[in-house]
Amino acid sequence: MLNWIFFIFVVMGYSNMISKLEVRTNLIQFKDPFFQYFGDAKDTSIPVNFLFYSALVLFLFSNFDHVNSCSTLPVSLSLLFIVRILCMFFLPLKADNQIKPLNDWLQKGATGATRNDLFFSGHISTIFMFYLYDRNYYYIISSFFISILFLISRAHYTIDLIVAPFISYGIFRILE
């Protein structure tokens, strides 16, 4: 229970920090060589939201009856959020000029629309963390398609998407 209370406090602090990081001016412009293969940016919010939240619902339903086997999950997700904030603080990437920002159904209410919360992808790292706990390949498939959709919308750079699962895996192994 304390793990979940800690997680709630981290999420509240995370939302506050995202808002503060969004207004920075010392951002680094990055030129992603893979954007050229996807043409002009397009809004991919609906399929990204569907894939992400369907993975979340799948995880909740498939683990509802054995919550104790996921007792480190709130700590894992808390550390993931803390590491993500630190990465965004120390590597302040500027969003691509053509970005079509993601209209995340839940995040928008908590932090408002964000553009520069780039390194590393919270969606991909969270879904990969679900995979590490549940071992259902739907999470891998969702991560792959969300990554492609993020490149199409330019909501993340390629490096953001590649690094995310490795950070999730590192946190998972540390807490194992």
What would you say this structure looks like, in words?
The longest helix is centred in the N-terminal third of the chain and has 21 residues, at 2-22. This protein has one domain. It has a two-stranded parallel sheet with strand order 1-2. The chain is 63% helix and 2% strand. With 176 residues, it is an all-alpha fold.
Gist?
With 176 residues, this protein is an all-alpha fold. The protein has seven helices and two strands, in the order αβααβαααα.
Q: Please tell me what the overall shape is.
A: globular
Extended strand count: 2
Our count of helices gives 7
The neighbouring-strand order within the major sheet is 1-2
* Helix/strand order, N-terminal first: HEHHEHHHH
Roughly how many Å apart are the termini? 18 Å
Uncertain stretches of 5 or more adjacent residues: none
Largest sheet: 2 strands, parallel
Tag the structure with descriptive keywords.
single chain, 176 residues, mainly alpha, two-stranded parallel ribbon, 7 helices, 2% strand, globular
Write the layout of secondary structure elements.
Layout: H1 2-22, E1 28-29, H2 45-63, H3 73-90, E2 93-94, H4 107-111, H5 122-134, H6 137-153, H7 158-175
Parallel strand pairs: 1-2
